[in-house]
UniProtKB/TrEMBL annotation:
GO terms for cellular component: nucleolus; tRNA-intron endonuclease complex. The lineage of its organism: Eukaryota, Fungi, Dikarya, Basidiomycota, Wallemiomycotina. It is found in: Nucleus, Nucleolus. Residues 203-287 form the tRNA intron endonuclease catalytic domain. Belongs to the tRNA-intron endonuclease family. Residues 102-128 have a biased composition (Basic and acidic residues). tRNA splicing endonuclease is a heterotetramer composed of TSEN2, TSEN15, TSEN34/LENG5 and TSEN54. tRNA splicing endonuclease complex also contains proteins of the pre-mRNA 3'-end processing machinery such as CLP1, CPSF1, CPSF4 and CSTF2. It comes from Wallemia ichthyophaga (strain EXF-994 / CBS 113033). Residues 102-131 are annotated as: Disordered. Constitutes one of the two catalytic subunit of the tRNA-splicing endonuclease complex, a complex responsible for identification and cleavage of the splice sites in pre-tRNA. It cleaves pre-tRNA at the 5'- and 3'-splice sites to release the intron. The products are an intron and two tRNA half-molecules bearing 2',3'-cyclic phosphate and 5'-OH termini. There are no conserved sequences at the splice sites, but the intron is invariably located at the same site in the gene, placing the splice sites an invariant distance from the constant structural features of the tRNA body. Its EC number is 4.6.1.16. This is tRNA-splicing endonuclease subunit Sen34. Keywords: Endonuclease, Hydrolase, Lyase, mRNA processing, Nuclease, Nucleus, tRNA processing. One of its GO terms (molecular function) is nucleic acid binding.
Amino acid sequence: MKIKIGVSNKRAYIWNVWDIARLRVEYHISGILVGTLPGIQQQNVFLGPPLLLLPEEAWVLVEQGVAQFVDLNDARLPTNDEINHYHQHKLHQIELEAQETKARNSKEPVLSDKDVQRRQQKREERAAAKSKAGFMFETDSTFTQSSPIPVDEKKSRLPNTFTITVPATSEYTFDNDNLIYSDLDSARSANVWTYPETPLELNKCRVFKDLWQRGMFMGDGIRFGGHLLVYPGDPLRYHSHFTVTVLESMSSSIKPIDIVALGRLGTTVKKVHLLASYNDKTNKVDYISLEWAGFGT
């Protein structure tokens, strides 16, 4: 089943929490969580769904057939009747699960009366042995020994609580399927998703795809002076190794001062800065790495 990417004002969002986990585990797409948590709204340190995707991430997912675009601008909010029907359906499912759990537990073998009496007798013998081996107190002592509370064996064998799994997912509300676009051309013709629009943006998508196919995780590289930030694995476990600046073509001119700045910046933040562009002759992405040698300066 394809993952649904909600598009609103040319931005790509993932709302389903299972899709967010699936993208991270199976397709090494991390994105950025931008939603506030219902319990602690007055903070922006720990965020939740939706997941905001980079334009390149959304492009490669749809181009590879993993996901499809959904036009959220024409989607509607559910009515009160639909919300009530949804909650009634969920409550009905929870009740059915509780009944099934109770039925499974009731099928456990029931002890006979003789077995129950035998267990009760052994319990009393152990309690008597403990009382003889313990300390002896005077009758006026502040310590008193309470008799054991009788236990109903039949009731004790039945669980008092049930564990019910309630899904924390949300679905879109559609009146028809005309809001779903499974390829880039149909989304572009409907003016739902128009990225990339320039040769530079197209090259950024091609470079992203090449690194993504190599198993890399990517993030926004603006904090480190590039277009992309490249991680060898999940960003929660690894530091980024590369920053990437994408050129419109390998013949694009670049000033020497910019080369020095990018090389020094990459070395300062302990990363290798890459210049990348798509080669139309070889149909491959070419990379040039910049590392500041220093030579004592």
